[in-house]
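Figure 6 in text form: structure in, sequence out.
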């Protein structure tokens, strides 16, 4: 999964980037569970969701089967 994260980003990533993405996911999830100051969470959540769906844009060969946008691959369905 780390390779998918690195490949989906259109710029070169340092070695700590995948770990930082994982930490951000945990922070977002815990923040939603906490339920306070959700307006502050919105920009972080929107950025994270944009980057999650960037796999569909930057790696369509990995995300879709047979170049068909109606057929997600296993990576496109569960990796996104």
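Output sequence:
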């Amino acid at each position: 999964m780390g390779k998918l994260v690195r490949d989906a980003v259109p710029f070169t990533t340092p070695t700590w980037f995948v770990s930082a993405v994982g930490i951000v996911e945990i922070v977002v999830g815990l923040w939603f569970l906490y339920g306070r100051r959700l307006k502050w969470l919105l920009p972080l959540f929107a950025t994270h969701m944009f980057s999650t769906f960037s796999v569909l844009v930057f790696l369509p060969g990995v995300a879709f089967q047979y170049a068909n946008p109606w057929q997600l691959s296993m990576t496109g369905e569960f990796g996104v």
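Caption detail: Residues 38-58 form the longest helix (21 residues).
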